[in-house]
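Hi R.,

As promised on Friday, here is the backbone we talked about, encoded as structure tokens. Could you run it through your design pipeline when you get a chance and send me back a sequence?
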């Protein structure tokens, strides 16, 4: 169906653009992964761009959903009728991309979107932005992205972004005219990248990050004109030989290729490029508890994020890692490079970040720091991963820390050639709401996806975790009723890649704990799934949380700040004291019987609540055991399970 064109850059245009960009990156993902050769041929640029945009889409959709929900709707989230303002939608797009940015290419894309949003959201009273505003947005985006990279290199996505802004500035007209001019300028710049970077010329490809940006700009053209631009090839056709070297065709602005005036067909198939390198198996290390817990570091927190796990078999299964670095000088592909890639989100002020940039630049290379307004995304390659994290602790509060050890013979030193790991027969992949539970699940052998408060994982993150598990059979535990459809989409994508996936519709992490407790990999797959499903279904679940706003509930009207006790997803208790509400919830759950109570404490739960509830179980329910876990920053004050 043809896209209905938008006239101005209002909130609906932001939403439409993000959706079309995600679709375009999804179509081009494999091709972009395949042409990712500079400076490390780790084959994940397309996937990282896709996951970054997917996070932006989720944030924009959440803003629209919040405005569509009336006062009697959900317990959390913004209410109010109508649609969001352009400023709200643009800020959501930028924030979603920033917190979900993957790899260096995704980080640069996040900064480009942030730069545009800063112009679009400059005046919150404005209901739309015209062509003049879009030209300013392109320029600010390109300049801010270039400033975020410690050592910019031409022939990368930065060059493509600058060319798009230059072309937009020379054009008069509405948003559609400006968007098309930017797209054409970007496409011409992309075609020129092999002449700017010898490694691209030798491999016969254009820059992978730039190719992704052209796809995103093509989606913007479709947003304002209703017409999608033609496909842009990522490779240069090898059309002949001159001496001992291969002569590559250039990609012209119409998508055709010529060499010495002779037309040549475009090779649009995805596959290995250059030396045919396959990504290596990076060995991940957490700067903290290796089980996945958090380790205080002088006021900061280093929480292991399982997405930094090994990137093995990425060529055949599309595994993702945050290692693509498209924009930085001193290519580790040719010089060896540092041993670790370090990425984290950072809460810090501008002055502290300026000092951090100087320190990290002295520690390593491939430094990119993007963000602002107190939240930053930091990416660097170093030999001393601990020093890079400690620098973040001194600057502010780092979290979502990912540390990838490239290892001997990795993509830095051998162009990505490395023996592939043997697949295991069966694995469990689970979404967990806090770092403490992530550690518990990982100790039990599960691959985890961390869901932070207000940041539910996207389907791409779940697919990534399934690939990371590197198994022929996977049991998927979403552990949240709202994630069931997202998990189902991830399962379907994994099945399309040849992985046998069973989705158990767990609605709480305590149900996932029960399922994992009876998991036996040696059983037949169907028998194991049935047993895990039965254990989860036999576990009643509850949570104690604080209401964020006034709302109608099954137990009456709650006010912001009230303590809520939810049993099986429905509010059953409204009170003012956390411990008292938890007692009431637990008593109601045990009134129907039970043998085991599981308590998962959040960071903000009262210190004495676990002892108090354990004593109450001992006194009032003989023969019922209690087990207590620390969940970390899990959103709810307390999770309760009764089996």
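Update: got your reply. Pasting your designed sequence below so it's all in one thread:
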């Amino acid at each position: 169906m043809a896209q209905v064109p938008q006239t101005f850059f209002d909130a609906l245009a932001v939403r439409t653009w993000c959706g079309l960009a995600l679709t375009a990156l999804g179509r081009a993902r494999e091709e972009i992964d395949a042409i990712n050769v500079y400076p490390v041929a780790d084959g994940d640029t397309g996937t990282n761009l896709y996951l970054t945009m997917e996070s932006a889409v989720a944030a924009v959709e959440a803003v629209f959903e919040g405005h569509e929900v009336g006062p009697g709707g959900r317990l959390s989230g913004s209410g109010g009728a109508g649609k969001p303002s352009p400023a709200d939608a643009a800020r959501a797009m930028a924030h979603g991309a920033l917190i979900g940015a993957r790899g260096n290419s995704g980080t640069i894309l996040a900064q480009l979107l942030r730069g545009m949003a800063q112009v679009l959201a400059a005046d919150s009273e404005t209901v739309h932005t015209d062509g003049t505003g879009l030209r300013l947005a392109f320029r600010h985006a390109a300049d801010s992205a270039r400033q975020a990279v410690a050592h910019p290199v031409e022939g990368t996505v930065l060059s493509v972004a600058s060319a798009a802004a230059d072309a937009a500035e020379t054009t008069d007209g509405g948003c559609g005219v400006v968007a098309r001019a930017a797209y054409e300028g970007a496409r011409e710049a992309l075609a020129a990248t092999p002449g700017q970077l010898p490694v691209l010329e030798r491999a016969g490809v254009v820059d992978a990050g730039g190719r992704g940006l052209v796809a995103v700009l093509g989606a913007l053209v479709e947003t304002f004109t209703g017409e999608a631009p033609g496909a842009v090839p990522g490779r240069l056709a090898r059309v002949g030989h001159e001496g001992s070297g291969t002569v590559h065709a250039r990609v012209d602005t119409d998508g055709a290729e010529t060499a010495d005036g002779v037309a040549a067909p475009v090779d649009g198939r995805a596959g290995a490029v250059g030396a045919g390198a396959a990504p290596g198996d990076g060995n991940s290390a957490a700067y903290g508890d290796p089980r996945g817990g958090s380790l205080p570091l002088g006021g900061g927190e280093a929480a292991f994020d399982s997405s930094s796990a090994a990137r093995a078999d990425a060529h055949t299964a599309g595994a993702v890692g945050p290692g693509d670095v498209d924009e930085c000088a001193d290519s580790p592909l040719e010089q060896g490079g540092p041993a670790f890639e370090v990425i984290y989100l950072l809460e810090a002020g501008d002055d502290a970040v300026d000092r951090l940039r100087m320190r990290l630049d002295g520690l390593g290379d491939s430094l990119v720091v993007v963000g602002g307004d107190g939240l930053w995304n930091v990416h660097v390659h170093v030999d001393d991963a601990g020093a890079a994290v400690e620098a973040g602790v001194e600057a502010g509060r780092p979290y979502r820390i990912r540390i990838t050890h490239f290892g001997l013979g990795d993509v830095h030193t051998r162009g990505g050639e490395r023996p592939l790991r043997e697949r295991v027969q069966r694995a469990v992949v689970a979404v967990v709401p806090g770092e403490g539970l992530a550690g518990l699940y990982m100790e039990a052998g599960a691959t985890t996806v961390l869901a932070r408060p207000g940041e539910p994982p996207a389907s791409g993150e779940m697919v990534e975790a399934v690939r990371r598990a590197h198994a022929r059979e996977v049991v998927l535990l979403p552990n949240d009723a709202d994630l069931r459809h997202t998990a189902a989409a991830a399962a379907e994508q994994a099945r399309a890649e040849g992985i046998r996936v069973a989705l158990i519709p767990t609605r709480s992490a305590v149900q996932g704990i029960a399922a994992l407790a009876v998991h036996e990999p040696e059983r037949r797959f169907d028998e194991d799934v049935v047993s895990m499903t039965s254990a989860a279904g036999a576990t009643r679940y509850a949570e104690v949380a604080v209401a964020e706003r006034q709302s109608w509930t099954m137990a009456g009207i709650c006010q912001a700040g009230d303590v809520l006790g939810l049993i099986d997803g429905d509010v059953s208790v409204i009170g003012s004291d956390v411990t008292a509400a938890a007692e009431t919830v637990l008593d109601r759950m045990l009134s129907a019987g039970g043998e085991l109570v599981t308590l998962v404490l959040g960071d903000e739960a009262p210190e004495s609540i676990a002892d108090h509830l354990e004593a109450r179980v001992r006194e009032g329910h003989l023969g019922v055991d209690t087990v207590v876990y620390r969940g970390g920053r899990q959103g709810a004050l307390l999770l309760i399970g009764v089996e």
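One thing I noticed while checking it: The first strand starts at residue 238 and ends at 242.

Thanks again,
M.
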